[in-house]
Amino acid sequence: MSKSLASDSIAPRSLSEWLHYLETLHPVGIDMGLERVSAVAKRMGLLSRPVAKQVITVAGTNGKGSTLAMMDAVARAHGLQVGTYTSPHLLRYNERVTINGQQADDQQLVAGFSHVEAARLQSPEISLTYFEAGTLCALWCLANEALDIALLEVGLGGRLDAINIIDADIGIVTTIAQDHANFLGNDIAQIGREKAGIFRPLRPAVLGSLLLPSSVAAAAEAISAPVYCLGGAFSHSDEPQATEAQPGARLNQWCWRGLTREGGEVSLTSLPDPGLPIDNAATALQALSLTGLALDEDACRHAFHTVQLPGRMQWIGQWCLDVGHNPHAANYVAERLSQVPDGGRQWALIGMLNDKDVEGVIRALLPRITDWVCVSLDGERGHSATELAARITSLGGHVHGCANSPEKGMQMIAKQLSPADRVLVTGSFFTVAALLEETLPQA
């Protein structure tokens, strides 16, 4: 690049201009590997100083966002200074970086991207993907705060994800299932090994599911990382109730048992249901306990009572919005959805990307859905509504109609919505994000 072009590339830009520019820098959107991003991080000084006093990295197919959100809430309830990096975002890019619960402002992110670009353009110039540049920007923002804990969410995989340039003090793997097959393949054991690539020698590895392939624990043990497994080192159970609950009813309190960093036993009781997977809540507590934090019951109760994660079983009147886009996530949604309401219908407004297991998602939701509305998503990865409808019909579902956008699908349902109806919006972050910006009609 000529000197003048390099100067132009770091000219003042708004956040939206930076994001548009970053989309043009690399020939492909996903280019897994650490060599390029590590080189730029080194130039920025990000590898020569800690991002925070302690770093927890979260990998997994599902449950990363909810585990991280609950760790954030619990740690801040204990008075700690906490920064987070997550992806993707729903409405604003700023959601990806938070400091003590507040989204980074445009000025912080613009400064971060300017530092990334200046380092990238040093000789020899290094090409970065949009995600790699965003990760470096986020790490720069976090490193410039006096943080007790930085919570980092892996974007894709683990071993070769840009986040993995940072050595985590504690690594978490939440769940393992098939997703992103184009990049990670369909071998569950191999996917587990890729996710376990975030673990570090002699540093705790927290396993947050009873159904993880053995390759995850094996990868940790191979580098002498202490393993803390759900159902072993830590567990959760329903709070005993004075009266017997109705069949199928969800108990609203639970107990947790786990270990401290020193190996002592610790337990918490009467914890409220956070509205997110309890496996992930238990995992969050175990990871924080391993930082040396003395968990306070009242602080934990407050955190679980107030934690929110947009787009995860988020109810807005009659509408439930969930970004689940693989069978594992869809099964969780189906379990949490109530039966078809008496005298009403349970709709699904679904839009998906074409690299997902569409039929697996549909099969998981079929028992709970009476009427489907299929919507097209923009871009080369977007499934067309008619393709989705054909899949649903072939599996025995009733397709009410198709629309060329989530907004049009919402309008289609609005014309038929009765007070007894419920609507699930699902299949993709893009589907949910589109409707979060709308005023959802209520009957």
TrEMBL record:
Pathway(s) annotated for this protein in UniProt: Cofactor biosynthesis; tetrahydrofolate biosynthesis; 7,8-dihydrofolate from 2-amino-4-hydroxy-6-hydroxymethyl-7,8-dihydropteridine diphosphate and 4-aminobenzoate: step 2/2; Cofactor biosynthesis; tetrahydrofolylpolyglutamate biosynthesis
Keyword vocabulary terms for this entry: ATP-binding, Folate biosynthesis, Ligase, Magnesium, Metal-binding, Nucleotide-binding
The protein's Enzyme Commission number: 6.3.2.12, 6.3.2.17
SUPFAM superfamilies reported in the protein's UniProt record: MurD-like peptide ligases, catalytic domain, MurD-like peptide ligases, peptide-binding domain
Domain called Mur ligase C-terminal: residue spans: 311-429
Residue span(s) of domain Mur ligase central: 58-204
Catalytic activity: 10-formyltetrahydrofolyl-(gamma-L-Glu)(n) + L-glutamate + ATP = 10-formyltetrahydrofolyl-(gamma-L-Glu)(n+1) + ADP + phosphate + H(+); (6R)-5,10-methylenetetrahydrofolyl-(gamma-L-Glu)(n) + L-glutamate + ATP = (6R)-5,10-methylenetetrahydrofolyl-(gamma-L-Glu)(n+1) + ADP + phosphate + H(+); 7,8-dihydropteroate + L-glutamate + ATP = 7,8-dihydrofolate + ADP + phosphate + H(+); (6S)-5,6,7,8-tetrahydrofolyl-(gamma-L-Glu)(n) + L-glutamate + ATP = (6S)-5,6,7,8-tetrahydrofolyl-(gamma-L-Glu)(n+1) + ADP + phosphate + H(+)
InterPro entries cross-referenced by the UniProt entry: Folylpolyglutamate_synth (IPR001645), Mur-like_cat_sf (IPR036565), Mur_ligase_C (IPR004101), Mur_ligase_C_dom_sf (IPR036615), Mur_ligase_cen (IPR013221)
GO cellular component: a single term: cytoplasm
Single Gene Ontology MF annotation: metal ion binding
Keyword Cell cycle: no
GO biological process per UniProt: folic acid biosynthetic process; tetrahydrofolate biosynthetic process
Known function: Functions in two distinct reactions of the de novo folate biosynthetic pathway. Catalyzes the addition of a glutamate residue to dihydropteroate (7,8-dihydropteroate or H2Pte) to form dihydrofolate (7,8-dihydrofolate monoglutamate or H2Pte-Glu). Also catalyzes successive additions of L-glutamate to tetrahydrofolate or 10-formyltetrahydrofolate or 5,10-methylenetetrahydrofolate, leading to folylpolyglutamate derivatives.
Family of this protein: Belongs to the folylpolyglutamate synthase family.
Stated name of the protein: Dihydrofolate synthase/folylpolyglutamate synthase
